[in-house]
Amino acid sequence: MPIDPADLSREQKDKSQSSLKKEGLPKEREILRQEIKALEARLEKVKREEQETVEKPREEERIPTKEKKIKLPEERREPYTPTPEELIKEEVPQEQEQPRPTPQIITKVAQIQKMAPDDQVKVLLNIADKKGVSDAIDIARYLGSAYVLDEFHDKLVAKIQRELKELYREE
Question: What is the pTM of this model?
Answer without folding.
Answer: 0.43
